[in-house]
Design a protein that fits this description.
The chain is mainly beta. Helix content is 10%, strand content 33%. Residues 80-188, 552-637 form the Plastocyanin-like domain.
């Protein structure tokens, strides 16, 4: 039997076994699990013989991050039941879960037990696994329950991550600590002699905010959900004021953006070029150099960092350098103009300057747009102390010992198959992924996420390659979006006419710059300001307001579950050229990807394979607040 057929049939047997035990409820989606209760996957499959077996637990903990009082967090713990002892490795002094170390071809079983009060599930971000093992939010387990994952490691060598994927709670649970890294190795990589052991460093970059009692501060205002939450302290591997003590030789730095929403533009403070050897999907074919690299939430980059020739006592700082254009213009003016102390104790300087458009907005009453506590409350948002796109230190390298030997950078790292248009099943009809933003709503393909609702174009035939386009749907016609070059799309749609939040009624849309006219929030009807309305309902679009959508547009890191894809092209005809120039040299789009940052006005064309496994596979914005707000959907892979 062909290996691919064996994997597919193995998944089918596991599904049928569970169904036979009465553990999977039926659904309107033929052949797929739609509702699962409690301990549905609490049993291992008898015929699956793992090489690695791990028990993983998530718990509420108190953990020391800052001096003094411990911080209330959520944390993963793991124990090896079978396999190499080094397949899990704790990060010393970190609230992050242990790093998993796996090898291509290994069969893995993980018993995940939730000991927290809220439901949760684990997603293995970047791994190509069966749908039942992908961490779909419909499989979330309650306190005291267990979910059993079984899969074969099919990925190339590279850096992946794992994190909570609980429905509408992903952002907060990840912020509370439920995340860590996965390192996959294979024979191709092992032949290269890349830095290993103590010279192979995970670097998980996160931002957090703390109150005076050392407790985490999370979303307190609607604006923080719309932009995604940004803290005012940078943590590396769970530690503040982080630095690495190194020898004068080459290292491999595995950069992971573990922030909820913050985008980084990373570069060495002395102007040394960045050498990239890998991204989301593992090693590149050849090393690439950049003056800086962009790293969005969910993305990974492996760097070759050679400190040979640097004197003992010398230091090198990785900074996030100035850029702009990733937030709506209104938000950038509001959130990037304040000067405050950043993670390194330096002053952060925003790109836009001034409070601009938001002066005089009220935030206390039921009619207030922000629902907070006046502009004074806005000034206390963590954004303001570490502005998005400002210049600040991320981590420091300190050379503490001299050595004479160091590995050499290989000129050839790996071999990658390059997907071609001739490989795809839909060369003339790309699958659309239409991004749309509105007041307190984020959507993909014209509607917020509703579990199990799959549109026709999201049904994908197994073992096909699909041409896809990700674009911002901000057309002037209600219910339709633009793909960045003016072409109307058949699917997707813009967005916000008649959205309602927290009530059973529908608003009347957003017409002619009447910005929030007819919106419904918690049953409090906030009247109309518009004179021209969308058609009502969630697909009604923005009526005659073409410019409003683009004004609200922002960058989105779009993550596709399942097999990793290849980027064919970034179409930049619709971008703000001046803003785009501050980021364009930092994209590492070669190789394989599972997350791509799509700038405002940009369209990204890619090819994604759907091999080996049927079932539901998510795609969503990896700005985690946006994901929880509904910027998520799913593909149904069918035979």
């Amino acid at each position: 039997m062909h290996a691919m057929d064996h994997r597919h049939n193995s998944q089918r047997r596991r599904f049928l076994q569970l169904a036979g035990m009465g553990l999977i409820a039926s659904s309107g989606i033929p052949g797929l699990a739609r509702a699962m209760t409690g301990p549905a996957l609490s049993r291992a499959t008898p015929g699956f013989r793992p090489d690695v077996e791990i028990e993983m637990v998530s718990r509420d903990v108190m953990f020391p991050i800052l001096p003094g009082t411990r911080t209330r967090l959520q944390k993963y713990f793991a124990t090896v039941l079978k396999g190499p002892a080094n397949c899990i490795a704790d990060i010393p002094g970190s609230y992050l879960g242990p790093v998993l170390r796996l090898h291509k071809g290994q069969k893995v079983r993980i018993h995940y037990r939730n000991e927290m009060k809220d439901p949760s599930i684990v997603h293995w971000h970047g791994l190509h696994v069966p749908a039942l093992a992908d961490g779909h939010p419909m499989y979330a387990v309650k306190q005291g329950e267990t979910y059993v994952y079984e899969f074969e490691v099919m990925n190339r060598a590279g850096t992946c991550i794992y994190h909570s994927h609980a429905h509408e709670q992903t952002a907060e649970q990840v912020y509370q600590g439920l995340a860590s890294g996965i390192i996959v190795t294979d024979e191709e990589e092992q032949k290269l002699g890349l830095p290993g052991g103590e010279f192979d460093l995970p670097v998980v970059i996160q931002d957090r905010a703390f109150d005076a009692s050392n407790q985490l501060v999370y979303v307190s205002m609607p604006m923080e959900r719309m932009t995604g939450f940004h803290g005012d302290r940078i943590l590396i591997n769970g530690a503040v004021h982080s630095h690495f003590e190194v020898a004068s030789r080459a290292y491999r730095l595995r950069l992971v953006n573990g922030s909820n929403a913050r985008i980084y533009k990373l570069g060495w403070d002395d102007g040394t070029p960045i050498t990239v050897i890998g991204n989301d999907g593992g090693l590149l074919e050849k090393p690439e150099t950049r003056p800086y690299v962009m790293l969005a939430p969910g993305e990974r980059l492996d760097l070759w960092a050679d400190f040979s020739g640097r004197a003992v006592g010398s230091e090198l700082v990785m900074r996030s350098k100035p850029f702009h254009g990733v937030l709506p213009a209104m938000a950038e003016r509001m959130l990037s103009g304040h000067k405050g102390e950043n993670a390194g104790g330096e002053k952060g300087h925003g790109m836009m300057g001034g409070m601009g458009m938001m002066g005089g907005m009220g935030h206390g009453g039921s009619k207030g747009m922000m629902g907070g506590g006046g502009m004074g409350g806005m000034m206390n948002m963590p954004h303001m102390n570490l502005p998005v796109g400002s210049d600040y230190p991320v981590f420091k390298i300190r050379v503490t010992r001299q050595v004479s030997d160091s590995p050499k950078l290989p000129t050839q790292l790996s071999t990658i198959r390059h997907y071609q248009l001739g490989d795809v099943a839909n060369p003339n009809k790309p699958v659309p992924l239409a991004i749309a933003e509105g007041h307190m709503s984020m959507t993909l393909n014209g509607r917020p996420y509703k579990m199990g609702e799959v549109q026709d174009f999201e049904k994908i035939k197994l073992n096909t390659f699909q041409l896809m386009e990700i674009f911002h749907a901000h057309g002037s016609e209600g219910g339709h979006g633009s793909n960045g070059s003016g072409q109307k799309q058949e699917h997707g749609g813009g967005g916000m006419g008649g959205m309602n939040h927290g009530s059973g009624q529908q608003g009347g849309g957003m017409g002619m710059m009447g910005m929030m006219g007819g919106m419904q929030h918690g049953g409090d009807n906030q009247g109309g300001g518009g004179t021209e309305h969308g058609s009502g309902g969630q697909g009604g679009g923005m009526g005659g307001m073409g410019g409003m959508g683009s004004m609200m547009s922002m960058a989105h890191p779009i993550h596709l579950h399942g097999q990793q894809f290849q980027i064919l092209k970034r179409h930049t005809e619709g971008v703000d050229a001046e803003a785009y120039a501050t980021v364009r040299e930092g994209f590492v789009d070669s190789g394989l990807k599972d997350t791509v940052l799509v700038m405002p006005g940009e369209k990204v064309t890619l090819i994604k394979p759907f091999q080996d496994y049927t079932g539901l596979f998510m795609y969503h914005c990896h700005n985690l607040e946006h994901e929880d707000m509904g910027m998520m959907s799913e593909f149904q892979v069918v035979e």
